[in-house]
């Protein structure tokens, strides 16, 4: 039964790679352009999965439970995780599927993410993480806190997501880009060549996320999709050799990596790409902070913001919000901030050439700024 994790992971990695399903990009778009298309796709996954999860619970296939809400660790960890995914260039699953495409920066982020997840869960940081997570409140679910049926929450979420999706689907499409004639036909064309839409990809991922619940439960792992815990388990296995830590989730994340590689090779997108020094440092730092943040928060953008939200856990929805805030801060520091400063300097130079040159500084400073801009 453990092999079902591998099979589902391969399908998930394939879908994410072909659909370019990037949660980091969805969060970042909010702050850079205000575009909510990919965030809507992410919410589609949550809403559809929510219907499936509560149906499975109602018919007795799984049994949803809840525990006290570790609010402090969730807030701190989620904000840190959201900040880190901008540095790393992707969240947990994004790092896995980009590693499958051959991005060495993602390999580094993934290694340090798994390493610091293990350090935070079972290593030298475990005591501190456990201590912060012990600060809890009894409330655990949104519907429990409000005293309403979970199906009311499912209905409200589904309605909001349908309206958002309808809004985007009714927008006038932009100009179509010229494309080369297809080289593949039939299923091969659909799988490896044809562009996957954001909402189509979301529906595929939602179906896989629902399927993950009964498949995982059948092996004794009572959870849905999850990335942080399994990544930590891989490191613990490599260190201790304890085969008991190899569970359904470990097979899942190995499958994501494999599926992304298959998709990238089949579509001609696999290529080994070596990052520059700045990207290397950011990937390592981002991966390490992701591992710590996800361990504190009790999950990443999948385990918390996609899975725990579907069952309306307070931890999931609070983490979702603070991940977006953390992404916003990192976006301001590393993406929009420098570009706005450059735009302001360029505008000053156009208005008054002499003053603009003075504002830009000496030729040496200008050259250094140019090199810094290129590296960024």
Question: How would you describe the overall organization of this protein?
Answer:
There is one protein chain. With 376 residues, this protein is mainly alpha-helical. The chain has one domain. The chain has 18 helices and no strands. Helix 3 runs parallel beside helix 11. The longest helix is centred in the last third of the chain and has 38 residues. The radius of gyration is 22 Å and the shape is globular.
In short:
This protein has helices at residues 3-19, 23-32, 37-58, 71-88, 92-100, 104-122, 126-133, 142-146, 150-169, 187-192, 198-217, 228-240, 248-267, 277-297, 303-308, 314-351, 353-360, 363-375. It is mainly alpha-helical and 376 residues long.
Instruction: Determine the number of helices (DSSP H or I, runs of at least 4 residues).
Output: 18
Relative helix content: over 70%
| Oligomer description | single chain
User: Using only CA atoms, what is the Rg?
Assistant: 22 Å
Main β sheet profile: none
Shape: globular
Order of helices and strands: HHHHHHHHHHHHHHHHHH
Q: How confident is the prediction overall: mean pLDDT?
A: 87
What are the low-pLDDT stretches, counting only 5+ consecutive residues below 50? 344-376
Distance between the termini: 46 Å
Number of strands: 0
The structure class reads mainly alpha
């Amino acid at each position: 039964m453990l092999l079902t994790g591998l099979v589902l992971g391969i399908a998930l990695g394939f879908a994410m790679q072909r659909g370019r399903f990037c949660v980091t990009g969805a969060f970042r778009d909010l702050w850079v352009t205000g575009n909510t298309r990919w965030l809507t796709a992410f919410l589609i996954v949550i809403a559809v999965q929510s219907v499936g999860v509560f149906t499975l619970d109602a018919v007795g296939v799984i049994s949803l439970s809840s525990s006290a809400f570790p609010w402090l660790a969730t807030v701190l960890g989620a904000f840190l995780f959201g900040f880190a995914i901008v540095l790393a260039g992707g969240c947990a699953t994004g790092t896995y599927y980009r590693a499958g495409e051959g991005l060495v920066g993602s390999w580094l982020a993934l290694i340090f993410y798994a390493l610091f997840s293990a350090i935070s869960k079972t290593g030298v940081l475990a005591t501190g993480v456990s201590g912060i997570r012990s600060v809890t409140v009894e409330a655990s679910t949104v519907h429990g806190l409000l005293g309403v049926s979970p199906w009311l929450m499912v209905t409200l979420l589904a309605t909001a997501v349908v309206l958002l999706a309808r809004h985007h689907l009714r927008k006038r499409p932009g100009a179509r880009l010229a494309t080369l004639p297809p080289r593949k036909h039939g299923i091969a064309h659909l799988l490896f060549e044809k562009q996957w839409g954001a909402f189509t990809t979301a529906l595929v991922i939602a179906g896989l996320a629902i399927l993950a619940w009964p498949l995982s439960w059948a092996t004794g792992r009572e959870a849905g999709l999850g990335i942080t815990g399994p990544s930590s388990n891989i490191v613990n296995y490599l260190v201790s050799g304890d085969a008991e830590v190899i569970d359904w989730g470990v097979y899942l994340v190995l499958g994501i990596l494999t599926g992304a590689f298959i998709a990238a090779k089949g579509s001609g997108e696999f290529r080994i790409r070596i990052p520059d020094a700045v990207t290397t440092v950011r990937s390592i730092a981002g991966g390490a902070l992701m591992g710590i943040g996800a361990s504190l928060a009790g999950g990443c953008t999948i385990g918390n913001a996609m899975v725990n939200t579907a069952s309306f856990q307070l931890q999931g929805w609070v983490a979702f919000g603070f991940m977006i805030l953390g992404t916003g801060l990192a976006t301001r520091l590393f993406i929009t901030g420098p570009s706005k400063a450059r735009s302001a300097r360029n505008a000053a130079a156009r208005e008054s050439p002499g003053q603009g040159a003075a504002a830009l500084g000496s030729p040496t400073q200008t050259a250094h700024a140019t090199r810094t801009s290129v590296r960024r």
